[in-house]
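Mods, move this if it's the wrong board.
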Amino acid sequence: MTKYLTELWDLIRLNPKKSVIRLLLALAAIGFVFGDYGLATRISMELENRKLEKLQAEEQEKIVELRSTIKNAYQPDSVEKVARERFNFHKKARPFLL
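Not the wrong board. C-alpha cells:
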C-alpha cells in the first residue's frame, strides 16, 4: 500500500499540471453524475414523471366514467337503479300467471 502511495506522490510531484487537470476532470465527472442537475437526479425525475403521467391517465379515465354517469343520472332507469343499490329497494315481483 505504501508503495502505491509513494508512486502516486511521485507522479503528482513530477507532473503537477496533469494531476490538477485529472483531478478537475474527475470532479467534473462526479458533479455531472451526482450533482443537483446531474444524471442520477435526471433519471429519478424521469421515473417520477412517468409515474405521474400514468396516474394522470388513470384519473382522466375516472373523469370520463363519472361524466357519463352524471349524463345518465337523470334517466328514470338510472335513478331506479341507484335507488335499488343505495337503499336496498327491490322491484316487486310480478305474479306468475299460467
